[in-house]
Amino acid sequence: MQMSDGQGGSVTSYAYKASLIGSAHRFELTDEGLSWHIAGRSGLWRYDEISAIRLSFRPVSMQQHRFRADLSHAKGGRIAILSTSWQTAALMAPQDNGFRDFIVALHARMAKAGSRVELTAGLGRKTYAAVLAFLALLALAMAGLLIRALLIGEFAGVLFILGFAALFVWQVGGFVRRNRPRSYSFDQLPRSLLP
Fold this sequence. Notes:
Helix content: 25-40%
CATH topology of the largest domain: PH-domain like
Number of strands: 12
CATH class of the largest domain: Mainly Beta
Oligomer: single chain
C-alpha cells in the first residue's frame, strides 16, 4: 500500500500475522530505510545496511501457495516476511498482491540507494543438494516397489504406486523447481518466487 508520510515522501507498507496469537508484523519502506515492528520490537534498517535478501517458495499444510523473503542486516539480525496471514485457527489467507508490491518496491528503493546487497533465490545449495539426494533415493525405492508389484502381478499395487508417484511429483516438483538456488539482480527478480 502506498501513502504519503506527511513530509513529501512516500511510504509503502505491508503487514501480516505470523501466528494467531500476537500482533501483526508491520513493515514500511520510508525514505530513510525499512522500518519494522515485530512482537513489540521495532527498528529502522537503512537500505545500505541490508546485506542479503533470499526469496523462496515455502508452502505449508494450511497454505500451499506461500512465499517468503528473508532479509539479513549487516550487523546481524534477520527478518522474515511472509505472503500469508493467519485469519482463524483454520484459515491462513494469501496476501499475494501486497507481498509482491512490497518486495518489488523494496528492491527498487535498494537499487536507487546504491545497495550492494547479496540477492539470492531458492534454497541454500547444500540444502537443495540434500533434497535432490533424498528424492533420488525415494525414486529408486518407488521404482523397486513398482517392479516388484509388476513381477508378482499385483496390478492394484501398480496403480497405487503410479498414482502416489504422480501426486508426489505434482506436489514436490513445483517446490523443487521454484527453489533452485540462484542469484538474481535488481532488474531481474525471479518471477517464480513472487506470487
